[in-house]
Amino acid sequence: DTGVSQNPRHKITKRGQNVTFRCDPISEHNRLYWYRQTLGQGPEFLTYFQNEAQLEKSRLLSDRFSAERPKGSFSTLEIQRTEQGDSAMYLCASSSRQNNYGYTFGSGTRLTVV
Amino acid sequence: AQSVTQLDSQVPVFEEAPVELRCNYSSSVSVYLFWYVQYPNQGLQLLLKYLSGSTLVKGINGFEAEFNKSQTSFHLRKPSVHISDTAEYFCAVQGGKLIFGQGTELSVKP
């Protein structure tokens, strides 16, 4: 069990560029979650997957955001045409029924849009 | 819908003093309750959780929390803090997905 892995750890991009983040969950966890955290705030739910199915999306997830989880393993979160307001820490977590769906979080990807 | 309110945004305390971080929640259904800790530039680490049973829950690093259904509270306590406890603490409620409070910054001074 190597935990939840997120890459990259940091990303600096120019406004208008597209960025993609990757999350590798704990291998036996069937649920995967994405959260966004801005400075001084608690994490806000974006979306979650059960296996490869995306079951819920927050209204925070505008049409510039898309998430995928092909084959129910790793997940990617893409932001198109980035804006300065997208600057935040993007956290991924995974869980399974075996641990009462307790979340294990990755270390996050910090995005800075300049 | 569930929501979480952390009543203090910042709590300064001296080393070896006791501390309480306050959390109230709102939910129309039974929920699970959690406390997470976040060190600078890191992800969230689970401190403790209440799923059912005993209302006093013990976690890692000497922290404990008490679930109070009548007051809809889940306050976090530690009898004696260390410098290394300086971090951001988040209370969270899970009725489906996990919903977080805004966080309490605990600052332990020597």
State the low-pLDDT regions of chain A, or none: none
Major sheet attributes of chain B: 6 strands, mixed
Mean pLDDT of chain B: 93
- Report the total helices of chain B: 0
Q: Output the radius of gyration of chain B.
A: 13 Å
Which structural class is indicated by helix and strand composition of chain A? mainly beta
Order of helices and strands of chain B: EEEEEEEEEEEE
Largest sheet of chain A: 7 strands, mixed
Q: How far apart are the termini of chain B?
A: 41 Å
Number of strands of chain A: 11
Major protein interface: A-B, 23 and 21 residues
Structure classification of chain B: mainly beta
What's the structural blueprint in terms of helices and strands?
The complex is a heterodimer of chains A (114) and B (110).
Chain A: E1 5-7, E2 10-13, E3 19-24, E4 31-37, E5 44-50, E6 53-57, E7 65-68, E8 75-79, E9 88-95, E10 104-105, E11 109-113
Chain B: E1 3-6, E2 10-14, E3 19-21, E4 23-26, E5 32-38, E6 44-50, E7 56-58, E8 64-68, E9 73-78, E10 87-94, E11 98-100, E12 104-109
Parallel strand pairs in B: 2-12
Antiparallel strand pairs in B: 1-4, 3-9, 5-6, 5-10, 7-8, 8-9, 10-11, 10-12
Which properties best describe this structure?
heterodimer, A: 114 residues, mainly beta, 7-stranded mixed β-sheet, globular, B: 6-stranded mixed β-sheet, 55% strand
